[in-house]
Design goal:
By secondary structure, the protein is of the alpha+beta class. The chain is built from 12 helices and 6 strands. It has a 5-stranded mixed barrel.
Length: about 400
């Protein structure tokens, strides 16, 4: 293809909006055209000089952007190859030629055409500062090629043979997965030295991200390898014990506990805690001081009646009969108990209050509790709370 200096670029260009990408001069870029307006633009360009303007959209979600919804700087492109598909879309291979500034629209129908001003690189002279920036960019790009799987290794050699600072900056920016806003900033920077200077922190950030990603992948792989090795050794140990006819008592104990945890039907908040503690116990030595504590904690979790419940018998007349049968007099106490049962029967979803019986030994506190349990059809359990006392409050 001819050099961009030898190609006559008109002052008025048909404009192709680019979604989420930026085209740089001297680089080949594939494009897919699917709207009727742009298909007509391509047909007209192919009939003339095959030259159009490519400008990135500020908002990629807009289907047919207006001129003010495009960035002010774009790239002149020449159509190298074109393929039509049965669904009406067109696939293009284009080459970037030169930067341009959008001036004002010439037409908006059937597609956008605008007057443009071509832009050349400013102060394209080599200096010590430019040479330092160039070497820095080349070194960082080569480091990125080693880190990024999407970059072919051949690019490391290609980048060393680019002498022009502006072309070097465009080459690197074209291949790195920067955000399109960052690439647009580089496209709008006409001074090669300034363009290289803006490119350095972008490359540094990309290198940091890729190095962190590589470190995370390495750590994950190390953990996976460790887990696979432990699994392989345990399976090998089980196979050896099976061949020798030996039974691993610890493994059998852990399996029994795991089965008991499953049968206990614990709440969803409790079962993961119990299984985690069981895994911790399985890795713990039986001689460890915490072994007994952990085992006792698991036994305590297992024996709790998580899923065992009795249906309450809310027959008030039956409750009154049982209370009268078990206790003589105590009318106020029995009446309060019956009120409690009545409220519980009417409002089944309520959280019942705690009934507190106060009095010296022998007045019937425990027997009243037994009567309530018998009336409701519940089991009666007596728990001694010896030593519990109320703390006296100090008056002000």
């Amino acid at each position: 293809m001819k050099n961009s200096e030898e190609i006559v670029i008109p002052e008025v260009l048909g404009i192709i909006p680019i979604k989420g990408g930026v085209i740089f001069p001297q680089h080949f870029t594939p494009l897919i055209i699917h709207t009727k307006r742009l298909v007509q633009l391509i047909d007209d360009a192919l009939a003339q000089n095959k030259i159009v303007g490519a400008v990135t959209q500020k908002n990629p979600d807009i289907e047919e952007p207006k001129l003010h919804e495009l960035y002010a700087v774009g790239c002149v492109i020449q159509i190298s190859k074109m393929l039509r598909f049965p669904d009406g879309t067109i696939r293009l291979l284009t080459q970037g030629l030169k930067r341009f500034k959008l001036n004002h629209p010439v037409q908006t129908e059937p597609y956008l055409k605008a007057k443009v001003t071509l832009v050349d690189d400013e102060n394209n002279k080599k200096s010590m500062a430019v040479e330092a920036l160039t070497r820095n960019v080349v070194a960082m790009f080569q480091q990125l090629v080693m880190l990024a799987s999407y970059l072919p290794e051949e690019l490391s050699a290609v980048v060393m043979n680019i002498d022009d600072p502006g072309r070097l900056a465009d080459f690197v920016a074209n291949y790195i997965n920067f955000e399109f806003q960052d690439k647009q900033v580089l496209l709008e920077t006409f001074d090669p030295k300034e363009r290289l200077a803006k490119l350095v922190p972008m490359l540094s950030r990309e290198i940091s991200i890729l190095e962190l990603g590589a470190k995370i992948r390495s750590q994950v792989k190390s953990e996976l390898d460790k887990g696979q090795r432990e699994f392989y050794l345990r399976e090998q140990m089980k196979a050896i014990q099976k061949e020798l006819g030996e039974v691993d008592e610890r493994a059998q104990e852990v399996n029994e506990l795991r089965e008991k945890i499953t049968k206990a039907r614990m709440p969803k908040e409790v079962e993961p805690v119990a299984l985690k503690e069981l895994d911790r116990l399985a890795k713990m030595s039986a001689q460890a001081a915490e072994y007994t504590v952990s085992r006792t904690y698991l036994d305590w979790l297992i024996i709790l009646p998580w899923s065992v419940a009795s249906d309450d018998n809310m027959d008030i007349r039956r409750g009154k009969h049982i209370l009268d049968e078990d206790h003589y007099n105590l009318e106020k106490v029995k009446e309060r108990i019956l009120e409690y049962l009545s409220v519980k029967k009417l409002k089944k979803d309520s959280k019942g209050p705690i009934l507190c019986f106060v009095g010296p030994p022998g007045v019937g506190k425990t027997s009243l509790g037994k009567s309530i349990a018998r009336a409701l059809g519940r089991k009666f359990v007596r728990i001694s709370l010896g030593g519990v006392r109320a703390r006296p409050t100090r008056s002000s």
